[in-house]
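ok so dumb question maybe but i'm new to this and my supervisor (M.) told me to 'just get the structure for C7' and walked off. so i did the thing. is this what she meant?? sequence i used:
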Amino acid sequence: STICGDRFRCTSGQCISRSLVCNGDQDCNDGLDERGCEQDSSQYSCDLDKTPPNSELTGRGYDVLSGKLRAGVINTLSFGGQCRKVFSGDHKVYYRLPQNVLRYNFEVTVDNENIDESYESSWSYMQHIQSNSLVGHDRRTFHNELTENKNSKLIILKNKVELAQFQNSAPQYLTLAEGFWKALSSLPYTYDYSAYRHLFATYGTHYLSEGALGGEYQAFLELDHQVLEKSGTTDTEYQRCWRKVKRRFLRRKVKTVCEKITNSFASSGGHSIHNKPVKVNVYGGNPALTAALLLLDLENPEANGEKYDNWASSVKDFPDVTDQKLRPLYELVKEVQCAGLKKLHMKRATEEYLAEEHP
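this is what came out, is it supposed to look like this??
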């Protein structure tokens, strides 16, 4: 167990400052620090304990190989005796910020313009995300069914909805979630890759240093080079037209000189233009509304747009983390016996774990 010195020891063995005892907040997970206290609210550190909606997401671990959030690694319930408040204009109420959140803004933004991307092929897209995923710029997502070939151009239609933006404190100031702290405590002192791999499966490889809460929709359209050539689409036309595809598929049907591109997509794959399967990544939003986004009716963009709008409206009730910046999880190895040694072991294990995917 950890030696707490003159600090207060929670039942779990985690240590907290004595100044947090009997301050009206549960700084130990089981509330041991508030037991046997006289009920004197004048000693309480704050008159508010409601944290922003879904702020627990800011403390979750993240696995860069799967692109998925994992269990909590940062404590999002402790206030550290601070009484910092943030106002939500949408909810018309104040919320109290957890100790570990350095900055939190309620600002709703919708970004549908100029964030689409075009790649010469699915293969070049795969190269792009492989080079960017490990430094935390891209949410790493691989479509097993997205053909890694060089015969199709790839257009990615993107829409983003943000509800709030956050930044966590520097690692030396972060307090750890109790479950993660216990997992660190029980790691062996000698290097055992399987023990660390087991920890990564639960808590991920990284933590969030900043990001946004909201949702993101990405649709992947593959356009066969041969079909494009048959349609007479020149490179110049393609460069001029590919950005107009979203408006044509999700808003309204208009006859334009760019119709060749949409016809090329419609005629590839042999599916009905009224029920065209689309490969999508959807983060956030009501899962029940996601299935509708997997099919587009190329003759009815208004209906497609309505499906998208329904999903976007549901993001406020089902947010995910987007636009995240990541830091390696081994930075949070502290407050346990032999922390320096375990940090080195975790760094080595992280490199080994990522090398399984990138030999």
